[in-house]
Amino acid sequence: MDASFTIVPYSEAYKDAFRDLNEEWIVKYFQIEEMDRLALHNPKSYILDKGGYIAVALLNEQPVGVCSLIPCIYDGYDFELSKMGVSPTAQGKGIGKLLGQHIIEKAKQLGAKKLFLESNRKLVPALALYKKLGFVEMAKVASPYARSDIQMELILE
């Protein structure tokens, strides 16, 4: 990655990028669901105001990736790693891995002990990334997402 790459905390300036980068991959493979609308159209109230965090990856000062920590509704989990998207024009550069590492470090700073995520088995590159980051498949819990067919967890040290 070159020197013009950085990861910054979310601000309102990145509201459209947060929505667009996620909608891009969701629409490509699935369809937008109600839970997507809640998070993507109201990141401040749905994620940040509840104690969550959103990271924005910038390449040459342009947002090319996003990822969030959403306080988790499931017992035993502190946060859900969610709404991770990298622009197709920036994929293959390791941005997803750097975003994932950044989010995990942030979760540790926030005192998290265990992270949760939901995905779909057809998102092979995403699942490979999650495994590289240390996530392991877990027994499925009820999901608000129709597209979710795999859930993973990461126990933080």
UniProtKB/TrEMBL annotation:
Statement: the UniProt record of this protein carries the keyword Acyltransferase: yes
Pfam families reported for this sequence: Acetyltransf_1
Keyword Transferase: yes
Keyword list, A-Z: Acyltransferase, Transferase
Domain N-acetyltransferase as annotated: residue spans: 5-157
GO molecular function: acyltransferase activity, transferring groups other than amino-acyl groups
Protein name, UniProt field: GNAT family N-acetyltransferase
Species assigned in the record: Flagellimonas chongwuensis
